[in-house]
Amino acid sequence: MYCPGQPTNGKKWVAKLRQRARSAADTALAGRIVPEFNQNDIREVFLGNYRIVYRVRDDGILVLTVFEGHQLLKL
User: Fold this and answer.
1) CA distances (Å), 20 to each of 4, 5, 61, 74, in order?
2) Reduced to 3 states, what is the DSSP secondary structure of residue 9?
């Protein structure tokens, strides 16, 4: 998890988020449909407490947002 003042930890956390998003792209429809949208092409995967929300496209995925999962997704 990211700790202010420690850029190495932050870089590692971002790398983990990016890797999770890349793996979601490999099986894009395996992610959960985002309840707030209830659309088949808007999905999410989790990394710890974080939600990675993405849109499924013909050529892969487009990450829409990443946020701490205890917060509400603002529509």
Assistant:
1) 22, 24, 12, 22
2) helix
Beta strands in the chain (DSSP E): 32-33, 42-47, 50-57, 60-68
Model confidence pLDDT, tens digit, residues 14-48: 999 999 999 999 999 999 999 999 999 999 999 99
For the chain, report the end-to-end CA distance as a whole number of angstroms: 26
Angle among Cα 8, 60, 62 to the nearest 5 degrees reads 60
CA distance 54 to 24: 9
pTM score of the predicted model? 0.84
| Cα separation values, 69 from 6, 29, 41, 58, Å | 23, 20, 20, 27
pLDDT at 1 over 60: no
